[in-house]
Every structure is written in C-alpha cells, then in structure tokens.
Write a structure and sequence with these properties.
- This protein is α+β, with helices and mostly antiparallel strands.
- The chain has a single domain, classed as 2-Layer Sandwich (Alpha-Beta Plaits).
- The chain is 37% helix and 34% strand.
- It contains three helices and four strands; from the N terminus they run E-H-E-E-H-H-E.
- The chain has a four-stranded antiparallel sheet.
- The radius of gyration is 14 Å and the shape is globular.
- It starts with 5 loop residues before the first strand and ends in a 7-residue tail after the last strand.
- The relative contact order is 0.32.
C-alpha cells in the first residue's frame, strides 16, 4: 500500500437483531461499488467482539477523486441509505494511510 493512500471509514451502530441483515446489505453495497466505482480497491467490515451491534468499515481507494465520484452517484445514496436504515447511528470519515506493516 502506498503511504497517503485514501481510505473511507464508517462507524455503524446497528439496531439490535438487525446485524445479519446489515452485513448482507453492506456486502451488496460493496459488491456494487467494486463493479461500478473506478478506483475502488478493497473493503473490510469489522465487527466489535464485545458489542456485536457496532461495526467499522474501511475502504481503500486509488484517489480522493474516485471517492468523490462514488459518493456523487444516485446508486451510492440509495445503497448507503439501505444500510443506514438499519442503524441507530452512522458516521463517515475520510483518512489517509500514514504507515503500513505487512507480514
């Protein structure tokens, strides 16, 4: 990974009992993203072991411009909305890679 690579991050608090449906919808959202958003590289959804309704998502991108174009699409709004309707809280943030250590 390249230092300063852009990442998107979501912090999700899902309504209790809706976690499996959230995972399904998030996976569909990311599948659409991979097929339609140029510059999308890799996505992870991480579930809190102690609080199973809390998730973090990370997306690796080739450029900030790719993120901006992705977010501007109608499909993005629709698919993100489908995920958010299962949530009590959601926060999106943008980041850049500062360091990476791989095995």
């Amino acid at each position: 990974m390249e230092i300063r690579q852009p990442f998107t991050c979501g912090t999700w608090t899902v309504v209790a009992g809706k976690e499996d449906e959230f995972i399904k919808r998030w996976t569909e959202f990311v599948g659409w993203t991979h097929a339609n958003a140029e510059g999308a590289e890799r996505f992870l959804l991480i579930r809190d072991a102690a609080e199973p309704s809390h998730f973090l998502s990370f997306g690796a991108w080739r450029s900030q411009e790719a993120i901006t174009t992705w977010r501007a699409s109608e499909e993005f709004q629709e698919l993100l909305g489908r995920c958010r309707e299962l949530c009590e809280d959601f926060r999106a943030t943008d980041h850049i890679l500062a360091a990476s250590v791989e095995n």
